[in-house]
């Protein structure tokens, strides 16, 4: 792969990674609720999910989802249900703790559960699989899968994803320090996150 081709892929990856989606919203929500350090586990899970999705796309399952209405529909329902579940959870948990209580009490969610949530958000999004199915063939040999090129492209996209999460988490941490100090603002931010998750789940149901 030439350097110019790789730079083109980087530009495509950056646009896709910085476009707000479920993974970005998960990182923002985690940073707002539990701090930037906890958001690292969500982002790490999302990065692993991106690698799984990319592998799935190039091994043929992506083409199956593109060709099979039933397979795509089942994955779409699973992804939408999980996003709506996250939205309801965020709405219910909004404002349960004041800022002082949040600093004194241990975080209910474990690091593993946060990592798992980021992973599930990534692998349950059929749009991500179709993205890789459409983009990877433009940068891969048509007659066979080049393992080194696949690893380079996947690592590049994963790095762009982590960069976007770092940017959004930094913004969310700043907002947490300067905007959501009061319990009412924390409650409003949490419920707003819940509404966005539910909206994303509903929007995913319309994808064909």
Characterization of this structure:
The chain is mostly helical and 208 residues long. The protein is globular and about 60 Å long. It has one domain. The chain has ten helices and no strands. The protein has helices at residues 3-18, 22-34, 36-58, 61-67, 69-93, 99-104, 111-123, 126-139, 147-178, 183-205. Helix 1 (3-18) runs parallel beside helix 9 and helix 5 runs antiparallel to helix 10. One of its GO terms (molecular function) is amino acid transmembrane transporter activity.
As a percent range, the share of helical residues equals over 70%
List segments where confidence is low: pLDDT < 50 over at least 5 consecutive residues.
98-108
Beta content comes to under 5%
Overall morphology: globular
Secondary-structure class: mainly alpha
**Tally of DSSP helical segments:** 10
Tell how many strands the DSSP assignment holds. Answer: 0
Give a short account of the largest sheet.
Answer: none
Task: Work out the count of structural domains.
Answer: 1
Q: N-to-C SSE series?
A: HHHHHHHHHH
- N/C terminus separation: 33 Å
- For the residues shown, what is the average pLDDT? 77
Q: Over the alpha carbons, how many angstroms does the gyration radius reach?
A: 18 Å
Question: What attributes characterize this protein structure?
Answer:
mainly alpha, LeuE-type, 208 residues, transmembrane helix, single chain, 10 helices, globular
Could you write a compact summary of the structure shown?
The protein contains 10 helices and no strands. It is an all-alpha fold and 208 residues long.
